[in-house]
Amino acid sequence: MGRWTLHLSVGLGLLAVLLTCCYAEENYCFASRSKTCSECLQAGKGCAYCPDETFNGPRCDLHENILAHGCSAAAVITAKSSMMMERQKQIDVSLQQSQVSPQQMSMTFLPGEEKEVDVEVFAPTKGPLDLYILMDFSNSMEDDLDNLKRMGNKLASLVGTLSNNYTIGFGKFVDKVVEPQTDMRPSKLAQPWPNSDPPFSFKNVIKLTNDVDDFTRRLQSEKISGNLDAPEGGFDAILQAGVCGDKIGWRDLSTHLLVFSTESAFHYEADGANVLSGILRRNDEQCHLDATGSYTEDVTQDYPSVPTLVRVLGKHNIIPIFAVTNHSYTYYEKLHKYFPIAEVGLLQEDSSNILQIMESAFKNIRSKMSIHAQDKPKAFQSQFLSTSGQVKEYGAFNFKPGEIGKFRMRLKAQRMIGDDPVCQRNLDEKEGIMKVKPTTFNAAVNINASILCPTCNCEKTSIPQAPRCHGNGALVCGKCQCYDGWQGTFCNCSATSTALDTSHCIGQGMTEACSGRGDCMACGTCVCYNPDQFEGPYCQYSKTQCQRFGGLLCNDRGSCVMGQCSCAEGWTGKACECPKSNQTCLDSKGGVCNGRGTCVCGRCECPTSVIEMTSACEPNFQAQLGVCEATRSCAQCWAWKTGEKKDKEECDKCPFNFVMVDELKEREKVLDSCSFRDEEDDCTYYYTVENSKDLNVKDLEIQVLEKKDCPPASLLWLLPLLLFLLLLLALLLLCCWKYCACCKTCWQSCLALLPCCRKGRMVGFKEDEYLLRQSLLTSDHLDTPLVRTGPPKGTDVVRWKVTDNVHRAPNHPQALIKPNPKETIQFPVSLRLNRLFSENLSRPESRDAEQLRKEVSDNLNEVYKQIPGAQKVQKTSFRTQRNAGKRQDYAIMDTVLSAPRSSYPDIVKLTEKNVQSGNFHDLKVVPGYYTVATDREAAGAVEFQEGVDLVDVHVPLFVKDEDDDKKQLQVEAMDVPLGIAEIGKRLVNITIIKEHAASVFSFLQPAYTYSRQDGVANIPISREIIEDGRTQVSYRTRDLTAKDKKDYVTVEGDLTYGPGETQKTVPVRLLELGEKDGLLEDKQVKQFVMDLSNPRQGGKLGRYPRTTVTITDQPEPSVMMFKKGTQNFNTSDPSYTIPVVRTRNQDSPATVKWRTKKAQRFELSGPLKFSPGETEKNIVIDPSAHPGPVQPETFQLELFDPSSNASIGERKTTLVNIIDGVPTSPEFFPMQEKSYTKRLNSPGGYLNSPENVKAKASGPRSIHVNWDPLSGNPMGYKVKYWVYGDQEHEAEIMDVKTPQAELTNLYPYCDYEMRVCAYNAMGDGYDTDIVECQTLPDVPGEPGRLAFNVINQTVTQLSWAEPAETNGNITAYEVVYTPIDDESKPVGTAKKVKIDNPKKRMLLIENLQSAQTYRYEVRAKNSVGWGPYRDATINLASQPARPLSIPIIPDIPIVDADAGDEYDNYLMYSNEVLKSPTGSKTPSVSGDDYMMNGKWDQNFLFPGGSVTRNLSTSSSPMSTLSSNYKGTDSSFTTDTTTTFMSGAGITRQDMIVGGLNKTDVIMRKRSENRYYTDENIRDSIVMGDVSSKFPDLGGFGYTGMQSSSQSQFSYNLSQGSRARTQSSDVNEALYNLDRVLQDARLSPGVPDTPSRLVFSALGPTALKVSWQEPHCEKDIQGYCVLYQLINGGEVKRINVTNPAENSVIIQDLLPNHSYLFKVKAQSQEGWGPEREGVITIESAVDPKSPLSPMPGSPFTLSTPSAPGPLVFTALSPDSLQLSWEKPRKPNGDILGYVVTCEQLHGGGDVRSFQVNGDSAETSLTVPNLTENVPYKFKVQARTTQGFGPEREGIITIESQDGSALSQYNSQSMTRREVFQMPTEVNTRTTVSHTMLNDPFFSDGMMMTTQHTETSGMVTRQVTKEVVQRSVMAGSTVTKKMLYES
Fold first, then answer.
1. Residue 1897 in contact with residue 1623, Cβ under 8 Å?
2. pTM across the whole model
């Protein structure tokens, strides 16, 4: 019992405690599980400890909880913090210096505590100022220095206006004195430029001084210096100027300004470590200036980082001002945003405006004040608030100089730092002196802040062997601490073997120890398996089994503890469903339940009442139609004793106070004023209702007017008259009944009035006729009302039909033309779905609409597939229809079915049948409604539900351009298939009048884009004049995402056009971006629309009656186009001048290129450069400068390739007409052209060409063409159209009957050309001139294949190709990457990255989760929108990694997949400004594995990982090498399969007369990489002749080539004698094949090829070459590096004897020359194969010395490009044609090519060919070749810069004509060594080749050749061989080899 009592008391005590505690997340005191009193107090603010030894609750808890649990208030131990003001001197505004108040204070904080302090600051109007000028002294700044020298006095005058107490200093910087930043040749170190100082990093020239004359004098002696690369080392100088305060001369109480002047970008941290040899140490942020002021550590430590500069300058109160030129302005404009206060100014090229920049910057700085806390310990957080309590981001305040500013500082001590309690952290993280001050101040509030970690005194006085602890422990602070060997709360359990008895862990009524949910420990203590789920002394309680409310455990207002809910503060109840507060029970007066009810569990329980009550027990007048209606009967019964409650018992139940008054209050002063008629006396009574004036009275007060308002006389005399009239009506009805029964002809006249007749209902159209004007139509349908009369009970379904053009007589010409019944037309179909319409269905892109659209399409297609020739439905949309009775909230589906015209009746019957059944396959529809239409008739049905007397018929109007001027449609109600109604008014006529408008109004474009910086959006509205005169149109703007008076100012009004006016402009004012919107990163696109409406005086709306205006935050690009669409000149004109105009953004420079097209004598092109402000430029063509006579012609000029800040407008091309000898005259030429082009009808009757042909794009895939009708009764027209650039004979032809055509199924954003001709019985007439039109853009297709370059397991570089269908200009890409599981389901948050530069199709992603599979998705965007995603899945851990020694390409976007909110992290990865500009650090990597000439090979790695890897790059069926491999430790097992001559070849047949042989030449390409890059790709092609008759000899041929990274072998075995046996022939062939394979393997100890070459330029003449150690079974002894100019010259050699070194630095290179590098490794077995690479260092060269680089000029690495893959075409057995493509990157103009040809294995002369030309594809015929000999061809491009790298190809022409060789000699093999074999290699190789009827192989023969290679000895064992003979099928020879080493 003792044990049970102990467990029960502990369990119940703990349960009682936990049931009263709050949320675990909120009660950090209890959650801390403190073991001691001190730990409890250190858990956080408000924590208290109870040392009472009899206390059974949790000893550590919130103070109020401890007291509630029963601990005495005197015993509770708590802690308290302090705050003391040590120095608080009031601000003295008379002192012109920065001041703060208070100045010194100390504060202690408990963990989690928060305190606020009021602070005052004062900034003087003219305080002390220190100005330090830091200037770039590179050679390009020479004129800037000269200007500064002349500005000494002006500078002093400027500083004097800013401050009365100032100092000026000067420093200079260049860059680190080491390569590649500086030319290290001795002569250049002494004097890099004439009359210049030696190079240096930073020097403090003039210490801050107030002696302006001395400053000016010392500045005169300064001379410029120089360096090599473009970025400068200014960051070194800024840091030293900041930390060397004494040597620079900064004063304590002054404002510190640092003016940084340069024209170059900057180096920053890691530039030294990545590029320079030996500079690896990080910047130590210390002062390193010697006595002369020079920086001494520039070559021993790296540049500082941006976060370092921000921190250092902030610590020393230095404000940077960046004065930079236009070359680098963008870099510093982004950089300065990282500083709390900084300015950037645009410097003139000669720095002439530097004083203006200083003055403007200082004024801007004075207007800002940023408060921040310096030296803040890690345990503290700070916020700065205005006096009103508003938090200020970044401490930004607008305090004016000369006035005292006040703000509030909030400091909070953190409870936890990471996962550790704050009291457990180091002392420097918990306390320190922080300085709170504005950035520009030196004066600060010094706060000595510390975390208070209290300890308890009771822990120092313990009671040993306390009785409470059964003498087995000490009592410390009321808690037992057991001695060794004792356990338990009261130390009453011995830790012996008996304590392990599991029976102690079984509770009452339990069968298992710890309920089967935990382990039984000593002394009956249960440790639950899952403490997060189970708890209790015996783990008997589950934390998920408490009561729920609303489905939520403990109502989500508490936690489940010991099987019961422990509610959070303010909540109670078994499921925490009841709030303790009565806030939810308050009535409108603030009382509880209106004083009538009680508040129970947050709800009012109201007494029963005759008046319905609200939830607060107030009368619910809303439920009773208002106050008056609710009080009516009570007021009537109380005042007049009448009405429904006139019984006293009922009236007494009314909960109101009644008062009779003589006069009522005004309506405005009461709750309501009421009046009703008393039915008993026909009098009206009046009363008011108001709240009682006595607040204690909860009832309403009703004041009733004593006097009723009664009528003067009675109307009882009307009753007899009414009775007589009723009797008379009854008599008439009876007569009518009798008459109908006997006279059937009158039956229908009274049908609607006789319910006794069975058919007493009629339906019919409401109107007889509708008259419509086509110009005012807003829809292609008309809702025509159909009405029903008679009793509305029951349902009637009415079928209807509509017929077009009923006004035409049967003999009308158009009526005589019968349509083709087999013609496929579109049938619009409408059905009412059995589901309600939702807002989402109105948005086609919504998910609901998409799902329903798919469901509709699937089911309708299933039904309509019964119709022959029917296609799938399309264009499905959803809508509602008003006046549809009870079904008007149901969704109506509109779709289009394409089918033959003749199937119309079948479609109607099939639709009606399925509608009647209520199901379209599995789609639920509403019976009684459908519509099926063609282009000239329609049929359908509508339904009258019970109680409905009007529905609308949705009548199609068939509006077409070819309609008559006045046409008529007839709608007919046909019958009532369901219901009893009869049809009354059966027909309704609809007349549509087609007006011939005098004017057509339209916007020029459907959309415009304007920048906010434009200020005004000028929207042009055009008018097309048909008949001149005056006309009007209205316009109005309307909000979309842009809002009126926030983004723009709405406009509306009328435009009046006078005679001859064709265009007017409506200005719309654009507003500046608000401060709140400006801070948003992902701003919503702002758009509004402008509509045209109400055209008057003969006007109508044209193509674009609405335009959408997009407001951007950036300036819009310039728009450039030709001024005119046609230019006219004559042959005598000396030149042709064609103007090009520019609109928008005319203040920036812009360029565009132009070119001629279809000119006879010349093909010209060139750039047009617009300077700022220029709006028009001319293209001038001199016709006499080109060969040949000037003749009449017509050609085009085209604009293309605009600069990034420009675009091309509507007139992209212009037509230039050159006519013969006629003076160019604007009046004359149109006349002449008209007479020239217009042709009369010939005697044969051919028609003229149509006139006024116009083509406009109507969509991305359609163009609308129209022209003037042609006289002469043409039978029709033909429109020929083709893609611009194609031949006209390839045109598509469309036959139309009307003078217009709609061209469809076109390519988006594509230029088309077209002609139109008319035809009659004589044939086609004359064609029009070519008309051009471009289709509208569409969303782009998906991007090209994704490629990955794996840096390591957490970093990858993702790249992709441009979409194959851009459908416009690509403007951006979006990359989404998501972690996924094995089932491709997301397991983390998807992250998106937007890349705004479409040329950068790469993204470097860092900090990915290791070994995590990601799905990467990329999509493209153009002006229309986003296209579809291209996705790929990859796990980086399964891919080969790129060595870390390879630098990252610097100019691609970098994102951090795991980036947090830390400042440093954000700085280093968020913006490309931190990447150095193009310079020396772009690497070039040579190697076949993953890199190709400095560009990552985007094809080396396919998306996704696989166990099977194809190690052959061959894409042809010629040879396939696949490898399935697995490795375990040092063993490596490989299965290799090689196939010879598989797949068809290209065959050429030569028929030779005279009985000679017919020869087939077969060409197969062995290795072709279609997506070739700049790699020196080697192509291998095999050609063979197959005789028409097979000789009787057999043999085996084996050809190939060996290179550094891939091996191919050549071995030819011919049959010597016919007499040889079959088996010996095969055995010898296989034996020799084995020898070939053995010889091809490298010796085991010889090194392999170095994996790759990495080039890093150190200067224009210096290069660092590094490589990766190759695989070798023995130790590497050294390396050899060979290099020479690629066009010949001395070969230079560098030996590297230290095998640990894998890089060399070469100093003596020539700039702009291409070098060939070779690297190989050596072991004791000899030299291994070489790795080759070609590289060029591009740099500006001093014109005085061609081989000397120009100091200060940038330099980059460049790798020339090789020609495209070589393609061989066999012309005969001894000649072939070689062709290749132009290099992708010529790096200069192609002057020609050099082709060399030599035998692969030596022998014969090397032949060389010179080929001139620069065409896209070049070919060469090579004669006099020898059959069956492999040749190696090399092709080099010759450019203005020299020769580029070679493209190689191997070719063998194999033929057996007249030889002793079998046709099987053409069997070949390609083997590529891609992986290195480890120590133990187990290889099984299967070689298969095609055999056709070889006489030496017979059926059933078996042979297996097995080779074993061990320690150099070869043992050959022949067991058996299988050869299966077949004439038609191939056979296989299988060979197995086992290699062991």
1. no
2. 0.35
